[in-house]
Amino acid sequence: MMKAVSRAFALVALTVSTAASAQDYQDTTPYVVDSAKYPYTIYPSNTQLNNKIPWETQILPFSETGSYTAPEQDAVVTDEARLLNAPVLLDINDGMRNVNYLQATIPEANTPNVPPPTETQPTQTAAGLIGKMATTPVSVYYQRTEKFGNTMFGAGYNVNTSVTATPANGALAKKEEALGEGRIYGTAFNYERELVRGRAYVCGQQGGCNSGTAALYAMGSQIWSANLAGSFAPAPINWSRTFFSVSKTFMVGPVPLTVRALLTGGVRMGVSGQVNPALAAITAYAGGWANVVASAAVNVAVASIGVVGSLSLINATVQAAASLGWTLCSPSWSLKADLSLSALSGSLQAFAKVNFLFFKKTWNVTIASWSGISRYVNLVNRSGVMSSLGC
Prior knowledge:
The chain is mainly beta.
């Protein structure tokens, strides 16, 4: 027995080490914050913007080769700050003044824009069998899907749990099936992906299946699996992962700034239960967490660029439990689902700093600013009897 366990863990390790690396995507639609003042502009590579872009104040004309007295410099900086309603900071690195302008907080930074949740309460199929004896499989299932945020940054989950009873016939004994499944989603820059999916299934039947499987997926690829039989509780999984990255260009002032959002975090899964000819019972949880690590790049020459802040996209676990016992002529079922969730907490601000002869100006654009969503709820806890099924 110990040798078999060792071989199973070796297979899991091989699956993890050969898993595909994180996928990279690109949202090719630029986000233009202020099209009237700063339209989307494509510059030749390595274009020099420092000391080339005119200032906005009309107190004195801008000239790349001009010479300005100290009072004139003070007047330009003061009026530039007034026009933008921006503070003037001192750059401790070189002593130059910096007009630090919060250009915009984009609407998508904190405005939810997702469909309402969808939910199906436990419903028994084959409802037309009232008063008759069932001869085909009868199922009871529950599902719920809920999403948060919007297409700029978002998250969500799906939980699905069900039981199915198949009556005996002349050739086969009665059969019980139980299923629990959970999914976690993440969205960045118009790309929604299934980050995590955990699925567990068992089947009980005299002279038949009496077994099942559990599997964990990350970004659609299976990274772990286990066979289930008897009373089972394989070791839970908790692994770090890098999911995917997306790049999108924002016009931050006159600078086309490409922001790269990297989703990194982890996956987890646990399963336990029992399966035999009279019972199919399973409790499975699947979860994941993803944080956004942001960076910036440009193809022009400016004083500096970057993205500051941090964003927790999602940390969620969905647990599904399903049980179907058929010790008597009318099988008993139960379905339960729980959710533990925290999502969309933190902020990200992109900035571009450009030199203007004797001062600097920084444009700041807030692309994410979420106060956080947190909940722990029992989604469903129902039980019943399939009275239309015989022995």
